[in-house]
Description:
Layout: H1 9-21, H2 25-38, H3 43-50, H4 54-67, H5 86-98, H6 109-120, H7 126-135, H8 152-165
Amino acid sequence: MNIKLKITDKFKEDISLLLKQERNATVKERLTYVSMYSNGITKRDIAKMVGRTKETVGTWINKYFEGGIKSIQDNRGGDNKSFLTDENKEELRNIIKNTYPIVFKGWDGKILVDLIEAKYGVTYTRAGVYALLKSLGITHKIATKIDPKKSELKIATWKEELKKTT
């Protein structure tokens, strides 16, 4: 299907602006096809330059001209609904924010996987738990390793001794 459109300078400016603003790499790639096409490069030549088939390039260019930026959005990934109900999520948020695991030094992915499975009967991966935390507005911190041989008391004593000698 060949679409014959009059491409104006305003259209080219709009595409250029969209390219600068777009954060998603896939959508940016698709917009690049449209930009190249609007600058007079054929779909076949675009396909050769970007290492895609002419059909793939043509599909995204045609979709853009038919429906605009919304029609070329990256909708991959399927349904990312949580396995937990809203009440479960709120309860989990309160547990994480207001309590502390008894045996361990803090909540981590492994402990949360076990907690969710025991309490709600739902199995999450660690990556899934971190995505869940993000959806709950909770950020996870990565612990820094502390040398167990270092003692704050020893360091303070060493600093005092150093002051006495200088």
